[in-house]
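#lab-general

N.A. 3:47 PM
ok so I finally got the sequence cleaned up, no stray characters, all 252 residues accounted for. can someone with queue access submit it? mine expired

B.Y. 3:52 PM
send it over

N.A. 3:53 PM
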Amino acid sequence: MKTVYEKPKSLNDVHFHYCPGCGHGVIHKLVAEVIDELGIQHKTVGVAPVGCAVFAYNYYNFDFSQAAHGRAPAVATGIKRSKPETVVFSYQGDGDLAAIGTAEIIHAANRGENITVIFVNNAIYGMTGGQMAPTTLVGQKATTAPYGRDPKTMGHPIKVSELLSNLEGVTYIERTAITTPGEIMKAKKAIKKAFQNQIDGAGFSMVEILSQCPTNWGVKPVDGTKFIKEKLQEVFPLGVYKDLSEERKGGK
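B.Y. 4:20 PM
back already:
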């Protein structure tokens, strides 16, 4: 019988620990497939800080480093500068990247560090109990906003892709989602482009991925994609926010 699909070599043969309906497993698979297709498993280093993906080193079959909460871009910068031949990426959630790690991501992007950032935005703190995150929607309930986010006292959701796209050092930013097979393939294409940019020496690339968190949203797993399409995408529109990839190949 002809083989039509195989588990990516860049993933270990273990079960994910994520909640039913969580998007991290899908995103992990996409990243692993891209690394296999680019033939860079032997020289890839991932960095994960505190968050639901803190145990990513259990799942990926290549070198991985753990960083303090929010500090993954700094650790990735250190690894890339000390070993330029490696392909380095950070894997971060919105509670990490857009809150305690705001300064880290802004300055790494502004410096144009030649790294890749996978930014998983589920608009909530997942690992620590469903607290309000910087990306939580107006009116969305959280354990620290039981009546819903009130912009008068809690501010508005931070749109990271729009924010970073204004920085001179940024080469490529795209926001994607994993709601349908078609959108999942678009997300994979964006991830592959972000890794290829680093290989080409083009500079800082980030892919934001709108992902499900049914457990902390208080919805059934099957309704996670519906929440993204009907709620998240209204506030966080999908699309390419900046692309200077061709202009900056070879560090130009």
